Amino acid sequence: MKITVAGLGRVGLPTAAILAESGHDVVGYDVNKRLVADLSSGRTGTAEQQVRDLARRALASGRLHPSSMPFPADAFLVCVPTLTAGEQMDVRALEHAFTTIAPLVQDGNIVILESTVRPGTTLALAERAFGALGRDLDAIHLAYCPERLLLGNVVDELVWNDRIVGGRRTIDAETARAIYVSFVRGDVVLTDLTTAETVKLAENAYRDVNIAFANELAVLGQSLGIDIWEAIALANRHPRVNILSPGPGVGGAVPAAARLLASASSAPSKLLETARRVNDAAPRRVAEMVQAIAPLGARKIILLGAAYKADVDDVRSTPARVLEKLLTQSGFDVAVYDPVVTHYEGNLVRDLDTEARDADVLVLVTDHAAIRAIDPTRIGELVRSRCIVDTRNALDLSAWRDAGFDVHVLGRGDTIAQEALLS
Ligand SMILES: NC(=O)c1ccc[n+]([C@@H]2O[C@H](COP(=O)([O-])OP(=O)(O)OC[C@H]3O[C@@H](n4cnc5c(N)ncnc54)[C@H](O)[C@@H]3O)[C@@H](O)[C@H]2O)c1
């Protein structure tokens, strides 16, 4: 098939590349001219190694054509951004993509939206874009297929995840399925548009609620003086229990998706709103913990990790930024060390050794492998005070203690003096 993919970001580029590798003739359309120029000359940016390799193979095969304008095709996949850092849905890119491709869509073609949206959006966008041209939606196919890939493992997830395909009509879902089965090895399951839109938000909201529960358990663990990580691991031995991990807060797409679902009906969800409040409060809890355990006269804090999760360069809605602001407001000099992230709006530093020289508290925010591998003895020789807060239970407690560090683990009341927690 000829396929135009609109948006060549984290989702669109690997999708376009895998479609090309599966034998389709693909135009990758993006409004970012520099990205298109880079891809056209074989530069595939900072994506994961496997994505880079896949994209390079697709470009070299001549079946993936980066372009700053869309082209007529049998199928149009839309993968443009929809979620803002303010955790609202911004439909401008979607509206632009739909109105740009609508005049190119012939009768019998299919338009598939993959971006995360509030239920009802796919149909509303199509009605606006095609209605403005006097077109009848029955003449084209319309589907929504949410992307649920995990950053860091994108290529495997594209191939092996089950896909949910919602069609405006059954024939639309079936037409979309014919495209996905060309590269998906998981099941491709058909439903209607609104159900598919809701499924995507429900998956993210489920994680948000589950993490909020874990974060509340962490507070409990601290006040009971127990190790909540051990308690959660033991609870998860129950065959029908799967509690996620507490942490410094939730980033990535989850907060925005959970908010979209919370506000999707006329009766906003109290449970989802509460989960958001709990998770939004997590960085503040960490900031309070840091202040409580910081040595007298402490001035400089190094946050270890800017990304919202391990081993990705993604800082969307990262709790690191909130924590950095809170600690800065409290008068600390805060540096954020991250060996994986390249773009971050706060005070990102690359040379940990130099920064560590006058550090009073280290705070592990992201459990990147490179951060877990920091040698406590070596860093202990550099810092001004040997004090570390681990918000992910990622460190080898005894190794850090042996190196002379005062170690405080979020959710481990057994590592935190109760006077500090009460202050
Ligand atoms: N990144 C993920 O892990 C992930 C997972 C599941 C779902 N999603 C959803 O997929 C969608 C895309 O996310 P992403 O992470 O790939 O975004 P991204 O920001 O990485 O990339 C989006 C790309 O779209 C381009 N673009 C913007 N407006 C455009 C337009 N009108 N026409 C053509 N191109 C345009 C941008 O230049 C950019 O290159 C979002 O709705 C997101 O919520 C993302």
Summarize this structure briefly.
The chain is α/β, with parallel strands linked by helices. The protein is built from 17 helices and 14 strands. It folds into 2 domains: 185 residues, NAD(P)-binding Rossmann-like Domain (Rossmann fold), CATH 3.40.50.720; 146 residues, NAD(P)-binding Rossmann-like Domain (Rossmann fold), CATH 3.40.50.
Overview of the molecule:
Helix 8 (193-224) crosses helix 10 (254-262). By secondary structure, this protein is of the alpha/beta class. The strands form 2 sheets. Strands 3-2-1-4-5-6-7-8 form an 8-stranded mixed β-sheet, sandwiched between helices. A 6-stranded parallel β-sheet has the order 11-10-9-12-13-14. The chain is elongated, with a radius of gyration of 24 Å. Helix 1 (12-21) links the parallel strand 1 and strand 2 (25-29). It has helices at residues 12-21, 33-40, 49-61, 92-101, 121-131, 154-160, 170-180, 193-224, 228-235, 254-262, 270-293, 319-329, 352-356, 369-372, 376-382, 397-402, 418-422, and strands at 2-6, 25-29, 64-67, 75-78, 110-113, 141-144, 163-167, 188-192, 300-304, 333-337, 348-349, 361-364, 387-390, 406-409. It is built from 17 helices and 14 strands. It has 2 domains: 2-186, NAD(P)-binding Rossmann-like Domain (Rossmann fold); 277-422, NAD(P)-binding Rossmann-like Domain (Rossmann fold, 3-Layer(aba) Sandwich), CATH 3.40.50. Bound molecules: nicotinamide-adenine-dinucleotide. Nicotinamide-adenine-dinucleotide is lined by residues 6-12, 29-32, 35, 79-83, 93, 96-97, 114-116, 147-149, 151, 253.
